[in-house]
Amino acid sequence: MQFTRGLLALVILIAPALAPAEECEVELFVLGAGQDAGAPHIGYPDDPAWADPALGQTATSIAVVDHVAGERFLFEATPHVTRQLQLLDTLAPADGPGLGLDGVFLTHAHIGHYAGLMYFGREGAGADGIPVFVMPRFAAFLQGNGPWSQLVKLENIVIQPLAAETPVQASKGIHVTPLTVPHRDEFSETVGFVIVTNASKTLFLPDLDSWDEWAQASGIDLATRVVELDHLFVDATFFQDGELTGRDMSEIPHPRVKDTMERLSGLSPELRQKVRFIHYNHTNPIRFPASPESALVSARGFDVARAGDRLCLAP
Questions:
Q1: Is residue 131 part of a domain?
Q2: Could you confirm whether the keyword Hydrolase appears in this record (predicted)?
Q3: 49 within domain boundaries
Q4: 250: domain CATH number?
Q5: Which of 33, 98, 199, 232 could form an SS bridge with 314, CB 3.0 to 4.6 Å?
Q6: CA pair distance 11, 102, nearest whole angstrom
């Protein structure tokens, strides 16, 4: 399988559509890799992306495309969904009119993961019956609260309830299984998704509180999951403690990138290279490819997901 590093965002957006790097039946595309609010970040005037937009980042989202069936599935509807669908159209154009989405899978009800649904309504795309796959509490939240309830009423979206650890067939070549994980669940459950093809299993897990809490709840630790899966896109919100000035980061539960790397340091290089860090905060230095922290991630045998990356899930 081949993991191809994406081009610079500006080049991607103006270039003609790119063919897959190899013959590939099911392909994953990284559309964004930042934390919910992206970068430059609101209330952060010193962010270098204000002066250089090329340093900006959009919130975390991936797409999985079944090239055989001509179907495209979006994972997370972010506040940057307009730009991200334009990127997807450049990398893997839709076969027909409209948004060309055959389903949207949402992990939880925090702004960076579902707020982009607002663009599917009559003020935006005026979408027609896009299936939106969510857990039961999340479904009730969307159905019972505006403006999301209007999307349901007008059938811009059609809610497809999920059940934990129960796979759904997205297309002939793709099955998706939600796994509940510990996180702030004010309005919905939080899940990661295992995306299964005939050749691979991929974990998409942008948000959780603690590897230990998840292992205790599920009975499976992170190292075991790395062994059992082929690719893992995991929470990299913070690189280490001390990133947020004036904040007690012990009160902000997310696995730190340094801790995750240390936990997996005993695994072989072949296993460590399965892990790709995603959902990094604007304060996390791995957002910059040339940073010492990004170099450290590579030196330890891991990778950092970047917008424009593509990964073949079924050759």
A1: yes
A2: yes
A3: no
A4: 3.60.15.10
A5: 199
A6: 27
- Residue 66 tokens, joined: 């079944």
Number of domains the chain contains: 1
Segment 163-216, tens digit of pLDDT: 999 999 999 999 999 999 999 889 999 999 999 999 999 999 999 999 999 999
In a domain, 186, yes or no: yes
User: Which residue do the tokens 């103006």 mark?
Assistant: 14
* Structural domain harbouring 62: 3-39+57-314
What is the Cα–Cα distance from 74 to 76, expressed in whole angstroms?
6
Q: What is the pTM of this model?
A: 0.92
Is 52 among the domain residues? no
* pLDDT (tens digit per residue) in 10-63: 344 433 334 444 589 999 999 999 999 999 999 999 999 999 999 999 999 999
DSSP states of the chain as a string? --EEPPPPHHHHHHSPPPPPSS--SEEEEEEE-B-TT-BSPTT-TT-GGGT-GGG-BPBPEEEEEETTTTEEEEE---TTHHHHHHHHHHHS--SSSTT--SEEE---SSHHHHGGGGGGSTTTT----EEEEE-HHHHHHHHHSTTHHHHHHTTSEEEEE--TT--EEEETTEEEEEEE--S--SSS--EEEEEE-SS-EEEEE---S-HHHHHHHHS--HHHHHHH-SEEEEE-SBSSTT-STT--GGGS---BHHHHHHHTTTS-HHHHTTEEEE-B-TT-GGGSTTSHHHHHHHHTT-EE--TT-EEEEE-
Q: What is the DSSP string of 199-253?
A: S-EEEEE---S-HHHHHHHHS--HHHHHHH-SEEEEE-SBSSTT-STT--GGGS-
